[in-house]
Amino acid sequence: MSRDQGPGGAPGSGPARGVGGRPDEATAQEPARDSLPAVDTRLLVREEGVRGYLGEFRRKLRSGELGSLPVVVAVIIIWTVFGSLNSAFLSAQNLSDLSQQIVGTGMIAVGIVFVLLLGEIDLSVGSVSGLCAALFAVFNVINGMNEWLALLVAVAGGAAVGLIHGFFFAKVGVPAFVVTLAGNLAWNGLMLQVLGTSGTVNIPSETNVAKLYSTIFHSPAAAYVTAAVGVGLFLAASLLDARRRQKARVPFRPVAEIVLRTVVIAAIAFAAAYILNQYQGLPLALLIFLILLVVLDFVLRRTTYGRRIFAVGGNIEGARRAGISVPFVRMSVFTIAGMMAAIGGIFLAGQIQSASQTSGGGNLLMNVIAAAVIGGTSLFGGRGSVWSALLGALVIGSIQSGMNIMGVSNAVQFMITGSVLLAAVVVDSLSRRSQKAAGRA
């Protein structure tokens, strides 16, 4: 047949003719409709306003995309319960002390978050934190090394330990569980060897490491300026991201939504600043922790390296086929975990102003893993945030603080903390199952 044949002909046939030989409008418009791009559902949600957002929220709950909702609800419940049982729990002094006490554990938990994003586990961070605290104390206090140099050596030592773990896991093929379990024993033994027969090295209160934990900015302006800077950075980053996505012609948050989110963040930030100022002021340790969280959150969410971590954790074979160096990502992540364990261990040593044979021991390992998981990082990999460390540490610290005020024994505290950890894992498992059923995992 020729290419100008009528209806029913080959795919190359011309348009169907209507009355008077003109193209039939229904038939002629059909290709135009087929060529329209698919509409992103997020655009429809935003066009519907409040009703659209509520519908989207219900859809996410049904499909298991809970985000930080469970841990936020947990914090509200914990604070409500302990606050009703004893008014001292919600006092400015207790909440300020709590903000300092969670820093060491939270920093180590940040490293665990990176490892969990790969779907792996690191059982050595407790002993690594103790080893690095001992290295700093011995080099600086016993051997007289410059304090900042000793601090750098200790942090580099933690990164080196993590790199060793990553090498055996990524290159040799030893399971991460086994490598880090062996490391937990080996580095604890090395810590005892470094400390020597004395077993304890006291860190003078006038040293900078001790001051990193104990320093508090008493001026009310410090807390309020920090809150204002944080809110400003959030607003600027949100607007720049929206502008970048608009130029790329992909869905972006409208200005009204960005402003609403900024208002919520501002309310939380300035409320925290107000509470801190009701006691003594802004703790330096908390400020350093927040800065580290912002930097590492940027690394995870805004850099190619961060996207590769999520890719490897979400689908290792797909990441490999996409040209990602899986061994490099694995080794670097364990290096970060070792470095954060060292930083957290030094803050913990500054808190008690000593490094001893018990450093990094006790329930520290369980607390940092629990903090990462309770905060919302999935044990199955590919989903989580460094802010999980802050939220999880806040939950665990709140439970411990509340039960200490109530005079509850350590035995009961361990059981309750274990129950909360189990509940977090159950929520994670059910969420993942719901997402699979909804085709989103």
TrEMBL record:
CDD domains: TM_PBP1_transp_AraH_like. It is a multi-pass membrane protein. Keywords: Cell inner membrane, Cell membrane, Membrane, Sugar transport, Transmembrane, Transmembrane helix, Transport. The keyword Secreted does not apply. It comes from Streptomyces lateritius. It comes from the Bacteria. The chain crosses the membrane at residues 66-86, 98-118, 125-142, 148-169, 176-196, 216-237, 258-276, 282-300, 328-352, 364-382, 389-406, 412-430. This is Xylose transport system permease protein XylH. Its main location: membrane. It is found in: Cell membrane. Part of the binding-protein-dependent transport system for D-xylose. Probably responsible for the translocation of the substrate across the membrane. Residues 1-21 have a biased composition (Gly residues).
